[in-house]
């Protein structure tokens, strides 16, 4: 869909804005918002400023792992209409007009509204790609991911101001169009969840029931496994693979951590293991001196590593000799089990692992329980057939997941481009919303 443009444009001194409609005005940010610091409201709900969602209650998201301070008395009160900014991430888009009352970190900037403009328009404008680029141009620091917004430069940023009628029209247009896009994004996200569930179901069924639906079955005696083919063995993993516990060289001995070249699987790798079957590179390394002076061992390639602390059950197959930290164990497979088959079994026992997990602050599975882990073990030729069937099924499902991810990226790019075009006047949307919306 193409959109009309305004009749005439002008260029502002701020290069990051570009051309704007000639009849639009602008004011420095300090004339619209005044910095404020209201403290002593520790009983209010915690808020966070997200790049993608704006200001939201912290409790409404399950992906915010920042731990708040034990003392909330210095946290700042945010009221509806306030401008809240994560000053170290403004250049990433963590800027928003709040619709909520609550408190934010003392490290944030909070600004009280002293204007009569349309808050929805300002929300879209100050979060647009152009303004994000503007924040980047006035952010300074020595750490690339935590550049501080320079307050004086920020206070002088020009804020575009079409008429109130136009502001309302633009905000109403964007509410409608971004709502449509957001709904499509949510559909794609739900599709991805269903595809991943399908992938897990296919895997779990294959490693516990096999590929022949007509084969005679028997009770495994293990609740999470259920019935298995009659000719399969049900054994503890340690009887089919040699279990190796992980170790960490003494952190207080600097010499153990210099010129490190030996890959060392640690909790820093659990994010990678969530999405990958094989691990070639690790986030951390140790050296030969650290290995020689601790219980650490360099294990051969094609070992199945498994996290038993914190993020429990993340596993993968090493592609070269590696050591593992004390938070991991490793299984060196015998000729009785293929590493790829054992990997699939471990990823299918999430409910069993959850049952065995304990600990309030740091989740863990005790070594006795790790030694008791049991799986259904078919003959090697069946393992190879199951591995190949899972690989083919996963390839098809992963292609669909990749397509859905690509669709989400395109939709989000369109959303960002539409907002930028509307709030900077590159397109004229005044005739694209009901008249009552413009006059509201």
From TrEMBL:
<dbReference type="GO" id="GO:0016787">
    <property type="term" value="F:hydrolase activity"/>
</dbReference>
<dbReference type="Pfam" id="PF01420">
    <property type="entry name" value="Methylase_S"/>
</dbReference>
<feature type="domain" description="Type I restriction modification DNA specificity">
    <location>
        <begin position="229"/>
        <end position="395"/>
    </location>
</feature>
<dbReference type="GO" id="GO:0004519">
    <property type="term" value="F:endonuclease activity"/>
</dbReference>
<keyword id="KW-0378">Hydrolase</keyword>
<keyword id="KW-0238">DNA-binding</keyword>
<dbReference type="InterPro" id="IPR044946">
    <property type="entry name" value="Restrct_endonuc_typeI_TRD_sf"/>
</dbReference>
<dbReference type="InterPro" id="IPR000055">
    <property type="entry name" value="Restrct_endonuc_typeI_TRD"/>
</dbReference>
<comment type="similarity">
    <text>Belongs to the type-I restriction system S methylase family.</text>
</comment>
<keyword id="KW-0255">Endonuclease</keyword>
<dbReference type="InterPro" id="IPR051212">
    <property type="entry name" value="Type-I_RE_S_subunit"/>
</dbReference>
<keyword id="KW-0680">Restriction system</keyword>
<keyword id="KW-0540">Nuclease</keyword>
<protein>
    <submittedName>
        <fullName>Restriction endonuclease subunit S</fullName>
        <ecNumber>3.1.21.-</ecNumber>
    </submittedName>
</protein>
């Amino acid at each position: 869909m193409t959109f009309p443009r305004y009749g005439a444009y002008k260029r502002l001194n701020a290069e990051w804005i570009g051309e704007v409609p000639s009849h639009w005005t602008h004011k420095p940010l300090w004339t619209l918002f005044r910095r404020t610091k209201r403290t002593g409201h520790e009983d209010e709900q915690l808020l966070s400023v997200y790049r993608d969602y704006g200001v939201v209650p912290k409790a409404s998201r399950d992906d915010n792992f920042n731990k708040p301070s034990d003392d909330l008395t210095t946290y700042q009160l945010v009221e509806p209409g306030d401008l809240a900014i994560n000053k170290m991430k403004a250049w990433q888009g963590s800027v928003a007009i709040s619709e909520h009352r609550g408190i934010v970190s003392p490290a944030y900037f909070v600004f009280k509204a002293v204007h009569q403009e349309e808050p929805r328009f300002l929300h879209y404008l100050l979060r647009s790609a152009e303004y994000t680029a503007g924040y980047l141009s006035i952010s300074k620091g020595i750490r690339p991911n935590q550049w501080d917004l320079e307050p004086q430069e920020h206070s002088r940023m020009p804020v575009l101001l079409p008429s109130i009628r136009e502001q309302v029209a633009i905000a109403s247009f964007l509410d409608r169009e971004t709502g449509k896009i957001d709904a499509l994004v949510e559909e794609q996200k739900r599709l991805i969840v269903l595809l991943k569930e399908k992938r897990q179901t296919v895997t779990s069924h294959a490693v516990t029931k096999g590929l022949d639906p007509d084969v005679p079955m028997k009770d495994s005696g293990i609740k999470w496994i259920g019935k298995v083919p009659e000719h399969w063995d049900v054994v503890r993993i340690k009887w089919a693979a040699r279990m190796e516990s992980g170790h960490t060289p003494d952190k207080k001995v600097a010499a153990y951590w210099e010129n490190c070249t030996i890959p060392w699987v640690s909790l820093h790798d659990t994010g990678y293991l969530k999405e990958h079957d094989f691990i070639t590179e690790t986030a951390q390394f140790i050296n030969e001196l650290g290995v020689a002076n601790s219980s650490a061992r360099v294990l051969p390639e094609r070992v199945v590593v498994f996290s038993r602390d914190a993020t429990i059950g993340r596993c993968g197959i090493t592609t070269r000799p590696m050591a593992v930290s004390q938070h991991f164990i490793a299984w060196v497979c015998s000729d009785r089990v293929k590493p790829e088959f054992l990997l699939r079994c471990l990823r299918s026992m999430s409910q069993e692992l959850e049952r065995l997990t304990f600990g309030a602050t740091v989740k863990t599975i005790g070594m006795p329980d790790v030694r008791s882990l049991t799986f259904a073990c078919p003959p090697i030729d069946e393992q190879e057939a199951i591995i190949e069937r899972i690989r083919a099924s996963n390839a098809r499902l992963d292609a669909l997941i990749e397509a859905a991810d690509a669709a989400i990226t395109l939709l989000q790019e369109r959303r960002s481009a539409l907002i930028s075009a509307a709030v900077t006047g590159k397109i004229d949307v005044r005739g694209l919303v009901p008249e009552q919306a413009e006059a509201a």
